[in-house]
Amino acid sequence: MSQERLFYDGINDALRSVIQALGGNKVIGCKLWPEKSPDAAARCLADCLNDHKPEKLAPDQVLLLLRLGHQAGCHAGMAYLAQEAGYEITPITPAEERDRLADALLEASRVLQRAIRAADQPPPRRVA
After folding, report:
1. CA gap 68, 22 in Å, rounded
2. Which of 6, 49, 115, 117 is 20 to 30 Å from the Cα of 64, by its Cα?
3. CA 34 to CA 37: how far, in whole Å?
4. pLDDT digits (tens, 9 = 90+) for 57-116
5. Positive or negative: CA dihedral 55, 59, 61, 63
6. What's CA 15's distance to the chain center, in Å?
7. d(CA 94, CA 85)
């Protein structure tokens, strides 16, 4: 993996870096539009990232690119968005995500156990 640039001309420029890290327009175009030929998908993706063309990526497609970029270790798209919106980000490693999910499952299990114990208790008697 090559080092990412510090500055991008815009979100499309940052996303182009992500796409290059993932194998280029044909590879990613086919993931976004599997019904198209590789050449047509690549052209469509290039058009979506061209500021002078009306075609644009849908938000869920941008999110897919950000996720795929994260998996490949390319954080250019997310870093650009965070910088422009005034955030500082730190990518989460797969091990950290696994630990976070394990902690959430453990806590959910504890809550469920308390609920089961509470359900097994007889209702309080009402004194009239």
Report:
1. 8
2. 6
3. 8
4. 999 999 999 999 999 999 999 999 999 999 988 888 888 889 999 999 999 999 999 999
5. positive
6. 13
7. 25
